[in-house]
């Protein structure tokens, strides 16, 4: 995604404006809306999968890498 699209997606995610996004698609035809919803499902699924995946790895790496200076 280009920066503008990424900023828009992040804005909607951060502000919980999912309903606003869907309200903006009400003028689409049924087939367009179905394609759009499928596309957004894929985008958000991949985004959250990456976010959770990298987030967990980051937490685990930083949690378990601790040096015992008393030895």
UniProtKB/TrEMBL annotation:
InterPro entries from the UniProt entry: HTH_11 (IPR013196), WH-like_DNA-bd_sf (IPR036388), WH_DNA-bd_sf (IPR036390)
Protein name listed in UniProt: HTH domain-containing protein
Species lineage: Bacteria, Bacillati, Bacillota, Bacilli, Bacillales
Pfam short name (any one): HTH_11
SUPFAM superfamilies: Winged helix' DNA-binding domain
Organism whose genome encodes this protein: Virgibacillus chiguensis
UniProt signal peptide: none
Limits of the Helix-turn-helix type domain: 4-42
């Amino acid at each position: 995604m280009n920066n503008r699209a990424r900023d828009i997606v992040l804005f909607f995610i951060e502000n919980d404006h999912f309903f606003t996004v869907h309200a903006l698609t009400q003028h689409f035809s049924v087939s367009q809306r179905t394609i759009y919803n499928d596309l957004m499902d894929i985008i958000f699924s991949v985004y959250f999968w990456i976010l959770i995946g990298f987030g967990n790895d980051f937490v685990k790496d930083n949690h378990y890498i601790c040096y015992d200076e008393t030895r």
